[in-house]
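Objective 1b: paired records.
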Amino acid sequence: MTSTSTDELAAVRPARQHQGAEGAEMPQTPTRVPPGAPGAGLLTGLTQFSLRSLRHSFRDVESVLMAVLLPVMLMLIFTFVMGEAMAIGDGSRADYLAFVLPAIALTAAGFGASHTAVVVSNDVTTGFMDRLRTMPFPAVTVLLGHTVASMVRNLLATAVVLGVAFAVGFRTDAGLPQLLGAVGLIALWILAITCVFALLGLISGSAESANGYGFILLFLPYVSSGFAPVETMPGWLQGFAQHQPMTPIIDAARALITGTEVPSTWWGGPLWCLGFVILAVWLTAVVFPRKVTR
């Protein structure tokens, strides 16, 4: 157990000290909190662990830069290097920027959510999860805290990507309801992929393997309708591109962001996201008790 983890636990756990026979204080001893004992509760625990995860995130400068700058750089490269070479709309950079923007935003969410796998794995391997047994919080609040922190980080990264897109020429005819719908769909994908990465962090043996297990999810946008129309791909690849999770999510988000007609397959995006959430939560419920026994 590192000194940092000990300090964090001390900040959220009430001190327990006992008096000796002569009135002297005895050393503080961790005590298991009975299941029915009044504790800080789910909401307080969720707040504490969400703030803890956010503090760790913003101290890790490399992760912050990776989550924000990499998607922005990809957007600029695709737009200014390939924009006029792609026959999208009238062939202008502005049209291609509008085409790739949803894929870039979802790619940013993927890179940001992958950090969740690393921090959850660190909590398991450093013994932080074991120490939760001595605290008056439901143990699952640490995972919920990582999830909330991931949502905050990735929505901020998405806002940065959209801001840069507007700065380099993106314009839209979409109204406020459509833009809110696009943000809601992106947020649902962030929730889904965060739940998956949290599960990978639980079952992996190290932070490195946790990040590696989810690598395939980060490349799904590149084999979808995100950067090129599916019909321009080789025939053997079109089937996969059309039926993988990212294509319906990107198509729906693109229509909402640009203010065009939403495709009839829009329902596939939310359905894939909810499927990922349900599967990841169920598997986490199976695995988590083996990591932390209350």
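Objective 1b, second protein:
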Amino acid sequence: VGMHNMDGGTDMNKVIVLATPAESENFIGWYEDGSLVSTELEYRHTGGGKLYACFAGDADGNGQINTVDATLIMRAALGYADGNNFSMMDVDADGNIAVADALAVLRVSLGL
């Protein structure tokens, strides 16, 4: 993830951000204060809110992929919770939330 100011100045409320996912990563979109604002890799951010680049696996949408996300995905895969963030939980983009998605997130969160 990178960014630069739109007009070359220092106003951080006017920046262009760019997400560069690795080959195996599935970019979901840019979220500002919990709401999806763009699904494009490059986004012109003009607001003052906190902006997150979200990749599949960030089930709670907080901008970090960790064991909490793996747990949420596992619960959805086993039917103990709804998959209301389906696109973030379907890590391999195969159209299903499965145990394999949770394990992939767990591996990432543990650095494996």
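The longest helix spans residues 67-77. The beta strands are 2-5, 15-18, 27-32, 35-38, 42-45, 51-55.
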